[in-house]
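User: Some background: our group keeps a shared notebook of sequences we're curious about, and every so often someone picks one and asks for a predicted structure to add to the entry. Today it's my turn. The entry only has the sequence so far, pasted here. Could you supply the structure so I can complete it?
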Amino acid sequence: MVSGGKVKPWIVGITGASGAVYGTRLIEVLLDSGIPVHAVITDAGWRVLHEELGWNAARRQETLQEKFDGRVRYYPNQDIGASVASGSFLTAGMVIVPCSMGTLSGIANGASDNLLERAADVTLKEGRRLLVVPRETPLHAIHLENMLKLARMGVRIIPAMPAFYQKPRSMDELVDFMVGKLLDSMEIEHHLYRRWGEE
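Assistant: Of course. Here's the predicted structure to add to the notebook entry:
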């Protein structure tokens, strides 16, 4: 996490699967924890941010900076020459939340057709942590085979499956549970949900 006294950034990718709120909440928590965030959002991801959260997809850079007080480094998905496309750019890892089946397939098969897929490919080749949050149901055999392929390469597959044992009273609590599960896999301390056995 820390290199030469500096906290390594995390890359957060948001794709066109439903559940954009998981990605925006993760960014918010990371920033509030003092962890730098580099964001890559696909065109379909921007559409979902507009449809689900009302974000202005026509003013992408400005909208993202307004939402996070200018604290996020944003890269257009077409910018294949961005810093996160190179293994020499040090990061703690990458989270794709939510992850569409199209993006998951591109990563599993090494397509690297855009910046998000390339950043994920770099994360894999450099041996850094890659977490994907698939958001699709039902799943067919190709989806499952692609997830298995990634899991065998060490990718953490964390489906958007919130728990109910903590008796959530709001949508925010359900979202925080999932974000907390991501933070656990990222080895980042948090208090977003009550763990099993805790008072």
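Suggested note for the entry: The mean pLDDT is 95. Strands lie at 2-3, 6-7, 10-14, 37-41, 72-76, 93-99, 129-134, 156-157.
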